[in-house]
Amino acid sequence: MRGENAARLCEQQAEACGRLGSPLYAALLTRVAQDVRDGGPCGVTLAEYEDATLEDAVPLRLLGAVHALALTGRAPALAAHYPSAGGTAEPEDHDAVWSAFREAVAGHREWVARWLRRPPQTNEVGRANLLLAALLHTVPEPQWPVRLLELGASAGLNLRVEQFRYEADGFSWGSPDSPVRLADAWRGGVPGWLREGAARHPSLRIVERRGCDVTPIDPLSPDGSLALRAYLWPDQLERTARLEGALRLATKVPATVETAGAAEFLAGVELQPGTLTVVWHSVMRQYVPAAEWEGVERELTRLAASAGPDAGFAHASFEPGRVAGASGFWLTVRQAGRPERVLASARPHGLPARGHHAEAGARS
Hints:
The protein has helices spanning 4-19, 23-38, 41-45, 58-71, 76-79, 94-107, 109-116, 128-138, 192-200, 222-230, 237-250, 262-267, 290-305; strands spanning 146-151, 165-168, 171-173, 181-182, 206-213, 256-259, 275-282, 311-323, 326-335, 341-346, 353-355. The protein is α/β, with parallel strands linked by helices. Helix 13 (290-305) links the parallel strand 7 and strand 8. Residues 358-362 have low confidence and may be disordered.
């Protein structure tokens, strides 16, 4: 059947969007899938992607392209329905939203085609929740200088991690005046190790903020900030608010994201006396070829082996996997001379998180 692979990819992404709290995108992608099968505007647009795989995220590319049209005023009928553009989208309006979406695809084919060729990049600020937890647990002494290095950093927004505000039941960390507020950060109680780390570190001293990405985004540029906004889901205003706050912080707190692969970037890293070097990544490993990831592991092993009392090293990650037979997204930490520890799990966007107490041996 014509377009069957692309249609199935849209249906799979629709299910994921519904599960992750975007009923608007779940409804739209279900209709996109049928339009692809019918040979409508979406089918014509996605015709050259019939051999795409799930990892290519073609449905998310399409959604981002059309969201950008709404955000820039090029699709006013659609913007009237997208909450991120000031509109409203009630469940009973989904047919009208679909009509405006389909019209936008048909009327802006060159725009959509250009966006389909770019990778769908978010810089999910909610994942800073896991990074902050890892830092509070790992930094050995108050005000010990931290060098924060991020693999697959996108726009580098989470390199400003200690500038955000984190809140959960009976727990808070960070400035109450921060433009980024991560509310309801933990479910099922804040774990004891995190409370201890927060008490030990009322603040963090980050002396270097540097990352890498094969296609970095400049959050201070109009094109970069539009891309970040467009790849969020328009009916998830909490994510939009976090992004807007992080973009404001990016104008005040410098960070550098280099154009480089993860292994290449780490090859140029050396530990520095008097600091703790933390390498961090989140939901990016699946996009790195196996051969390159072997290089990443070699560099991480090299850095861990060079660590000493005056030059610390830790590797923190938030990636999908299995722990004790359960699939999920897991926060793990490795420090020199210690086994990998599984500290928490969370939804893919980082909020909320749950504490965990398994060791690496429980992974499967």
